Amino acid sequence: MSENEKFDYQKKICLLGDPAVGKTSLIRRFIENTYDDNYISTIGTNVLPKLVKLYIQETGQTIRIKLLIWDIAGQVSFNNVHLSYYRGAEGALIVSDLTRHDTLESLPAWIYQLQKASPDIPFVLLANKSDLFSKKTFEIKEAENLARSYKTHAFLTSAKTGDGVDNTFHTIALAVIRKAMNLPITTPEGDLKKIDSYSQWEDRTKRED
């Protein structure tokens, strides 16, 4: 995005999850619409910006939000993430790998650490690598049930194909903005088709710009 592009809000978003679940690949897919099969563990912390446009139904406003997406350092576990990574975050994506059940099992620990640092932060859960569905070690229902217990959403995503990626980032962006505007944050019982329409609307306005 251009440094001169105007925005209404700037928000820090964190990606969390075990090594090799696809956090960096998800960010690259969302920001650059690219994918690389060669996994290289992230060294240090990368911060990448992305401008997202969302329509807020209650107010009739079109909101421009500049997401500052933080990519966590490679090969870290939930109990040794530096506090500075969480500091100032206003939304999070917590990622598991559909082909590794242990990455699903560690999600509550990631959530615990996140909520310890930021008690009221909105977050969503991801079951990534849906392109490897035939190799799955858990059902999406397990992730959905876990998400429901935290009153949030779970999504199937594939950084490789792009399936579900924009929708997921737009969902957390919308939750963050609704919280900033003192509007109710969408619950799992809400109509997630609204998010699809926001995503499609943003893509259309991008083409028109």
Summarize the structure.
This protein is an alpha/beta fold.
Describe this structure in words.
36% of the residues are buried. Helix content is 34%, strand content 23%. Strands 2-3-1-4-5-6 form a six-stranded mixed sheet, with helices on both faces. The two termini are 13 Å apart. It is α/β, with parallel strands linked by helices. Helix 6 packs across helix 7.
Strand order of the largest sheet: 2-3-1-4-5-6
CA(first)-CA(last) distance: 13 Å
- CATH C-level name: Alpha Beta
Percent range of helical residues: 25-40%
Mean pLDDT equals 83
The CATH topology, please? Rossmann fold
| Domain count | 1
Q: So, the CATH homologous superfamily? A: P-loop containing nucleotide triphosphate hydrolases
Offer a few descriptive terms.
209 residues, alpha/beta, Rossmann fold, 6-stranded mixed sheet, 7 helices, 34% helix
SSE blueprint:
Blueprint: E1 9-17, H1 23-32, E2 46-56, E3 61-71, H2 83-86, E4 89-97, H3 101-105, H4 107-117, E5 123-128, H5 140-149, E6 154-156, H6 165-180, H7 193-208
Parallel strand pairs: 1-3, 1-4, 4-5, 5-6
Antiparallel strand pairs: 2-3
